[in-house]
Amino acid sequence: MFNNIPLRVNAALAGLGLAYLPEDQVRTHLADGRLVRVLADWCPPFPGYHLYYPSRRQHSPAFDLFIDALRYRGQKKS
Question: What is the pTM of this model?
Answer without folding.
Answer: 0.58
